[in-house]
Amino acid sequence: MKIYAEITGWGKCLPPAIMTNDDLATFLDTSDEWIRTRTGIEERRVSHVGTSHLATVAARNALAAADLDPNELDLIIVGTCTADEIIPNVASAVQRDIGAKYAAAFDLNAACSSFLYGMHYATQAIRTGVHKKVLIIGAERLTRILDWTQRESAVLFGDGAGAMVLEATTEEVGLLASHVTCDADARDVLALEFGMSFDRFGFDGIMPFNFVGQEIFKRAVKGMSLAVEKVFAETGLTTADIDSLIPHQANKRLIDFLAKMCHVPEEKTVINIQKYGNTSSATLPIAFCEAVEQGIVKPGDTIVSAVFGGGLTCGAGIIRWGQRVTPKRDNTMQLPSNGQSALDLILPLHLQTKAAWEKRGE
Question: Active site located where (predicted)?
Protein backbone atom coordinates (compact mmCIF):
# COMPACT_ATOMS: atom_id res chain seq x y z
CA MET A 1 0.00 0.00 0.00
CA LYS A 2 1.50 3.29 -1.12
CA ILE A 3 1.70 6.15 1.39
CA TYR A 4 1.33 9.84 0.52
CA ALA A 5 1.66 13.07 2.52
CA GLU A 6 -1.55 15.09 2.52
CA ILE A 7 -1.63 18.82 3.29
CA THR A 8 -4.16 18.92 6.13
CA GLY A 9 -3.35 22.30 7.67
CA TRP A 10 -2.13 25.68 6.48
CA GLY A 11 -1.50 29.02 8.16
CA LYS A 12 0.44 32.24 7.87
CA CYS A 13 1.75 35.16 9.92
CA LEU A 14 2.18 38.63 8.45
CA PRO A 15 3.54 41.45 10.64
CA PRO A 16 1.15 44.42 10.92
CA ALA A 17 3.68 47.15 10.01
CA ILE A 18 3.53 47.95 6.27
CA MET A 19 6.36 49.65 4.38
CA THR A 20 5.14 51.18 1.09
CA ASN A 21 7.28 52.18 -1.86
CA ASP A 22 6.55 55.81 -1.02
CA ASP A 23 7.88 55.20 2.49
CA LEU A 24 11.13 53.87 1.00
CA ALA A 25 11.41 56.96 -1.19
CA THR A 26 11.65 59.13 1.94
CA PHE A 27 15.18 57.84 2.63
CA LEU A 28 16.31 56.06 -0.57
CA ASP A 29 16.86 57.40 -4.08
CA THR A 30 13.87 55.56 -5.51
CA SER A 31 10.18 55.92 -6.31
CA ASP A 32 7.01 53.88 -6.37
CA GLU A 33 7.14 53.74 -10.18
CA TRP A 34 10.80 52.63 -10.24
CA ILE A 35 10.11 49.74 -7.87
CA ARG A 36 6.77 48.64 -9.33
CA THR A 37 7.91 48.59 -12.96
CA ARG A 38 11.04 46.55 -12.17
CA THR A 39 9.71 44.15 -9.55
CA GLY A 40 5.92 44.34 -9.24
CA ILE A 41 6.28 45.15 -5.52
CA GLU A 42 4.11 47.87 -3.96
CA GLU A 43 4.60 47.21 -0.25
CA ARG A 44 6.17 44.77 2.21
CA ARG A 45 5.84 43.90 5.93
CA VAL A 46 8.36 44.73 8.66
CA SER A 47 8.42 42.61 11.81
CA HIS A 48 9.00 43.88 15.33
CA VAL A 49 9.52 40.31 16.62
CA GLY A 50 12.02 37.56 15.85
CA THR A 51 11.77 34.77 13.29
CA SER A 52 10.78 32.14 15.86
CA HIS A 53 7.80 34.25 16.97
CA LEU A 54 6.60 34.63 13.36
CA ALA A 55 7.07 30.89 12.83
CA THR A 56 5.11 30.03 15.96
CA VAL A 57 2.05 32.09 14.96
CA ALA A 58 2.04 30.50 11.49
CA ALA A 59 2.43 27.06 13.08
CA ARG A 60 -0.52 27.59 15.43
CA ASN A 61 -2.69 28.64 12.49
CA ALA A 62 -1.69 25.56 10.48
CA LEU A 63 -2.41 23.27 13.44
CA ALA A 64 -5.81 24.94 13.90
CA ALA A 65 -6.65 24.36 10.23
CA ALA A 66 -5.79 20.68 10.67
CA ASP A 67 -7.41 20.53 14.14
CA LEU A 68 -4.29 18.71 15.29
CA ASP A 69 -2.95 18.43 18.83
CA PRO A 70 0.71 19.58 18.79
CA ASN A 71 1.67 16.44 20.72
CA GLU A 72 0.70 14.37 17.67
CA LEU A 73 3.51 15.93 15.64
CA ASP A 74 6.64 13.82 15.26
CA LEU A 75 8.74 16.28 13.23
CA ILE A 76 9.05 20.06 12.84
CA ILE A 77 11.12 21.56 10.01
CA VAL A 78 11.71 25.30 9.84
CA GLY A 79 13.07 26.73 6.58
CA THR A 80 14.87 30.01 7.24
CA CYS A 81 18.03 31.98 6.52
CA THR A 82 17.33 34.52 9.28
CA ALA A 83 17.42 32.45 12.47
CA ASP A 84 17.26 34.37 15.75
CA GLU A 85 20.47 32.70 16.94
CA ILE A 86 23.11 30.39 15.50
CA ILE A 87 22.37 28.01 18.40
CA PRO A 88 19.73 26.87 19.31
CA ASN A 89 17.65 26.51 16.17
CA VAL A 90 14.32 28.18 15.41
CA ALA A 91 12.51 24.83 15.23
CA SER A 92 13.26 24.12 18.88
CA ALA A 93 11.65 27.42 19.89
CA VAL A 94 8.56 26.56 17.86
CA GLN A 95 8.47 23.07 19.42
CA ARG A 96 8.56 24.59 22.89
CA ASP A 97 6.07 27.39 22.21
CA ILE A 98 3.37 25.25 20.58
CA GLY A 99 3.86 22.42 23.09
CA ALA A 100 4.89 19.69 20.65
CA LYS A 101 6.70 17.60 23.26
CA TYR A 102 7.40 14.55 21.10
CA ALA A 103 8.56 16.14 17.84
CA ALA A 104 12.07 16.17 16.46
CA ALA A 105 12.96 19.70 15.36
CA PHE A 106 15.54 21.16 13.00
CA ASP A 107 16.16 24.14 10.71
CA LEU A 108 16.86 23.95 6.99
CA ASN A 109 18.58 26.74 5.07
CA ALA A 110 18.23 26.65 1.30
CA ALA A 111 17.38 30.38 1.32
CA CYS A 112 14.23 31.09 -0.74
CA SER A 113 13.97 27.41 -1.74
CA SER A 114 13.81 26.24 1.89
CA PHE A 115 10.09 25.52 2.11
CA LEU A 116 9.97 23.36 -1.01
CA TYR A 117 13.16 21.60 0.12
CA GLY A 118 11.45 20.94 3.46
CA MET A 119 8.31 19.68 1.75
CA HIS A 120 10.44 17.41 -0.46
CA TYR A 121 12.19 15.73 2.49
CA ALA A 122 9.17 15.67 4.80
CA THR A 123 7.15 13.93 2.10
CA GLN A 124 9.87 11.31 1.67
CA ALA A 125 10.00 10.77 5.43
CA ILE A 126 6.24 10.17 5.53
CA ARG A 127 6.31 7.90 2.47
CA THR A 128 8.95 5.68 4.06
CA GLY A 129 6.99 5.49 7.31
CA VAL A 130 9.67 7.18 9.41
CA HIS A 131 7.29 10.05 10.26
CA LYS A 132 3.52 10.39 10.14
CA LYS A 133 2.65 13.98 11.05
CA VAL A 134 5.04 16.75 10.09
CA LEU A 135 4.90 20.51 10.51
CA ILE A 136 6.82 22.53 7.88
CA ILE A 137 7.39 26.26 8.30
CA GLY A 138 9.00 28.95 6.17
CA ALA A 139 9.81 32.03 8.27
CA GLU A 140 12.00 35.07 7.69
CA ARG A 141 12.88 38.42 9.22
CA LEU A 142 14.90 39.67 6.29
CA THR A 143 14.50 43.36 7.13
CA ARG A 144 17.02 42.91 9.96
CA ILE A 145 19.86 41.79 7.67
CA LEU A 146 19.44 44.17 4.73
CA ASP A 147 21.72 47.10 3.98
CA TRP A 148 19.10 49.86 4.00
CA THR A 149 21.38 52.21 2.05
CA GLN A 150 21.43 49.89 -1.01
CA ARG A 151 18.39 50.55 -3.20
CA GLU A 152 18.77 47.51 -5.48
CA SER A 153 18.32 44.99 -2.68
CA ALA A 154 16.56 46.94 0.09
CA VAL A 155 13.36 47.41 -1.90
CA LEU A 156 12.90 43.69 -2.64
CA PHE A 157 12.40 41.93 0.67
CA GLY A 158 9.90 41.67 3.51
CA ASP A 159 9.11 39.65 6.64
CA GLY A 160 6.58 36.90 7.24
CA ALA A 161 5.94 33.21 7.86
CA GLY A 162 3.81 30.39 6.52
CA ALA A 163 3.26 26.80 7.58
CA MET A 164 1.72 23.48 6.53
CA VAL A 165 0.85 20.25 8.29
CA LEU A 166 1.52 17.05 6.34
CA GLU A 167 -0.11 13.78 7.40
CA ALA A 168 0.25 10.24 6.13
CA THR A 169 -2.61 8.98 3.92
CA THR A 170 -3.31 6.33 1.31
CA GLU A 171 -5.01 8.90 -0.95
CA GLU A 172 -2.92 10.05 -3.92
CA VAL A 173 -2.53 13.64 -2.73
CA GLY A 174 0.19 16.00 -1.54
CA LEU A 175 3.56 16.38 -3.21
CA LEU A 176 3.36 13.86 -6.08
CA ALA A 177 6.78 14.68 -7.52
CA SER A 178 9.58 17.09 -6.72
CA HIS A 179 13.06 17.91 -7.90
CA VAL A 180 15.58 19.97 -5.93
CA THR A 181 19.05 20.97 -7.01
CA CYS A 182 21.80 23.57 -6.56
CA ASP A 183 23.83 25.68 -9.01
CA ALA A 184 26.77 26.15 -6.63
CA ASP A 185 29.09 27.68 -9.24
CA ALA A 186 27.05 30.87 -8.83
CA ARG A 187 26.63 30.74 -5.05
CA ASP A 188 28.31 34.14 -4.58
CA VAL A 189 25.87 36.17 -6.72
CA LEU A 190 23.38 36.11 -3.84
CA ALA A 191 25.19 36.16 -0.52
CA LEU A 192 25.35 37.81 2.89
CA GLU A 193 28.85 37.84 4.35
CA PHE A 194 27.84 37.08 7.92
CA GLY A 195 28.47 33.77 9.69
CA MET A 196 31.20 31.80 11.43
CA SER A 197 33.83 33.23 9.07
CA PHE A 198 32.72 36.77 9.96
CA ASP A 199 35.19 38.85 12.04
CA ARG A 200 32.95 39.99 14.88
CA PHE A 201 35.80 41.92 16.50
CA GLY A 202 36.32 43.97 13.35
CA PHE A 203 32.60 44.48 12.69
CA ASP A 204 31.93 48.11 11.77
CA GLY A 205 28.15 47.91 11.46
CA ILE A 206 28.01 46.91 7.78
CA MET A 207 26.84 43.50 6.57
CA PRO A 208 27.65 43.42 2.82
CA PHE A 209 24.81 41.89 0.84
CA ASN A 210 25.85 40.63 -2.60
CA PHE A 211 22.93 40.75 -5.03
CA VAL A 212 23.77 40.46 -8.74
CA GLY A 213 20.26 40.78 -10.08
CA GLN A 214 20.73 40.00 -13.78
CA GLU A 215 22.83 36.90 -13.13
CA ILE A 216 20.35 35.65 -10.52
CA PHE A 217 17.43 36.13 -12.92
CA LYS A 218 19.20 34.32 -15.78
CA ARG A 219 20.16 31.32 -13.65
CA ALA A 220 16.77 31.22 -11.92
CA VAL A 221 14.97 30.97 -15.25
CA LYS A 222 17.22 28.13 -16.39
CA GLY A 223 17.13 26.23 -13.08
CA MET A 224 13.38 26.45 -12.53
CA SER A 225 12.62 25.55 -16.14
CA LEU A 226 14.67 22.35 -15.88
CA ALA A 227 13.14 21.46 -12.51
CA VAL A 228 9.60 21.94 -13.83
CA GLU A 229 10.37 19.77 -16.86
CA LYS A 230 11.67 17.00 -14.58
CA VAL A 231 8.56 16.86 -12.37
CA PHE A 232 6.30 16.80 -15.42
CA ALA A 233 8.35 13.95 -16.85
CA GLU A 234 8.27 12.03 -13.54
CA THR A 235 4.48 12.22 -13.19
CA GLY A 236 3.56 11.94 -16.85
CA LEU A 237 1.41 15.04 -16.43
CA THR A 238 1.37 17.91 -18.91
CA THR A 239 0.62 21.60 -18.60
CA ALA A 240 -2.98 20.76 -19.59
CA ASP A 241 -3.36 18.94 -16.25
CA ILE A 242 -2.38 21.95 -14.14
CA ASP A 243 -5.10 23.91 -12.36
CA SER A 244 -2.89 26.62 -10.89
CA LEU A 245 0.67 27.89 -10.54
CA ILE A 246 1.96 28.89 -7.10
CA PRO A 247 5.58 30.05 -7.53
CA HIS A 248 8.21 31.69 -5.38
CA GLN A 249 7.44 35.41 -5.21
CA ALA A 250 10.72 37.08 -6.16
CA ASN A 251 9.97 39.14 -9.25
CA LYS A 252 6.80 39.70 -11.28
CA ARG A 253 8.63 39.21 -14.58
CA LEU A 254 9.94 35.84 -13.45
CA ILE A 255 6.46 34.73 -12.36
CA ASP A 256 5.06 35.80 -15.74
CA PHE A 257 7.76 33.74 -17.49
CA LEU A 258 6.87 30.64 -15.46
CA ALA A 259 3.16 31.09 -16.13
CA LYS A 260 3.81 31.31 -19.86
CA MET A 261 6.05 28.23 -19.79
CA CYS A 262 3.41 26.23 -17.88
CA HIS A 263 0.54 27.59 -19.99
CA VAL A 264 -1.25 28.78 -16.85
CA PRO A 265 -3.51 31.83 -17.36
CA GLU A 266 -3.17 34.90 -15.17
CA GLU A 267 -6.33 34.14 -13.18
CA LYS A 268 -4.85 30.77 -12.13
CA THR A 269 -1.41 32.16 -11.25
CA VAL A 270 -0.99 33.13 -7.61
CA ILE A 271 0.78 36.47 -7.33
CA ASN A 272 1.02 38.34 -4.04
CA ILE A 273 4.47 39.90 -4.42
CA GLN A 274 2.80 43.30 -4.72
CA LYS A 275 1.69 43.06 -1.07
CA TYR A 276 4.64 41.37 0.63
CA GLY A 277 7.74 41.57 -1.56
CA ASN A 278 10.11 38.61 -1.41
CA THR A 279 9.76 36.88 1.97
CA SER A 280 12.25 34.17 0.97
CA SER A 281 11.30 30.77 2.43
CA ALA A 282 7.92 32.15 3.56
CA THR A 283 6.68 33.13 0.09
CA LEU A 284 5.48 29.66 -0.92
CA PRO A 285 3.42 28.77 2.19
CA ILE A 286 1.95 32.29 2.40
CA ALA A 287 0.94 32.08 -1.27
CA PHE A 288 -0.63 28.63 -0.73
CA CYS A 289 -2.64 29.96 2.23
CA GLU A 290 -3.97 32.88 0.24
CA ALA A 291 -4.73 30.72 -2.80
CA VAL A 292 -6.90 28.47 -0.63
CA GLU A 293 -8.55 31.42 1.13
CA GLN A 294 -9.38 33.11 -2.19
CA GLY A 295 -10.80 29.97 -3.77
CA ILE A 296 -8.07 29.67 -6.40
CA VAL A 297 -7.21 26.21 -5.07
CA LYS A 298 -10.20 23.89 -5.21
CA PRO A 299 -10.68 20.29 -3.96
CA GLY A 300 -8.55 17.86 -5.95
CA ASP A 301 -6.64 20.56 -7.83
CA THR A 302 -3.22 19.88 -9.32
CA ILE A 303 -0.70 22.65 -8.65
CA VAL A 304 2.81 23.31 -9.92
CA SER A 305 5.33 25.26 -7.85
CA ALA A 306 8.87 26.40 -8.59
CA VAL A 307 11.48 28.10 -6.42
CA PHE A 308 15.05 29.38 -6.41
CA GLY A 309 17.26 30.93 -3.78
CA GLY A 310 20.76 31.67 -2.54
CA GLY A 311 23.20 28.92 -3.15
CA LEU A 312 21.87 28.96 -5.90
CA THR A 313 19.29 26.43 -4.79
CA CYS A 314 16.42 25.54 -7.04
CA GLY A 315 13.42 23.23 -7.21
CA ALA A 316 9.94 22.43 -8.46
CA GLY A 317 7.05 20.30 -7.34
CA ILE A 318 3.64 19.07 -8.45
CA ILE A 319 1.10 19.02 -5.64
CA ARG A 320 -2.39 17.51 -5.62
CA TRP A 321 -4.65 19.16 -3.08
CA GLY A 322 -7.00 17.01 -1.00
CA GLN A 323 -10.77 17.39 -0.74
CA ARG A 324 -10.79 19.91 2.11
CA VAL A 325 -10.21 23.61 1.42
CA THR A 326 -11.67 25.03 4.64
CA PRO A 327 -9.87 25.02 8.00
CA LYS A 328 -11.35 22.80 10.72
CA ARG A 329 -10.79 25.57 13.26
CA ASP A 330 -10.17 29.29 12.88
CA ASN A 331 -6.65 29.81 11.54
CA THR A 332 -6.52 33.60 11.40
CA MET A 333 -4.44 34.32 14.53
CA GLN A 334 -2.47 37.51 13.95
CA LEU A 335 0.61 39.12 15.40
CA PRO A 336 -0.41 42.11 17.55
CA SER A 337 1.16 45.49 16.76
CA ASN A 338 3.62 47.07 19.15
CA GLY A 339 2.55 50.56 18.02
CA GLN A 340 5.58 51.16 15.78
CA SER A 341 5.26 51.89 12.08
CA ALA A 342 7.50 50.27 9.48
CA LEU A 343 9.46 53.53 9.20
CA ASP A 344 9.91 53.60 12.99
CA LEU A 345 11.50 50.14 12.75
CA ILE A 346 13.64 50.70 9.66
CA LEU A 347 14.90 54.30 9.84
CA PRO A 348 17.29 53.58 12.77
CA LEU A 349 18.82 50.73 10.75
CA HIS A 350 19.20 52.98 7.71
CA LEU A 351 20.86 55.73 9.73
CA GLN A 352 23.22 53.33 11.52
CA THR A 353 24.35 51.74 8.25
CA LYS A 354 24.70 55.09 6.51
CA ALA A 355 26.91 56.34 9.36
CA ALA A 356 29.00 53.15 9.18
CA TRP A 357 29.59 53.58 5.45
CA GLU A 358 30.57 57.22 5.97
CA LYS A 359 33.00 56.24 8.72
CA ARG A 360 34.51 53.66 6.38
CA GLY A 361 34.90 56.45 3.79
CA GLU A 362 32.79 54.83 1.10
Answer: 112, 248, 278
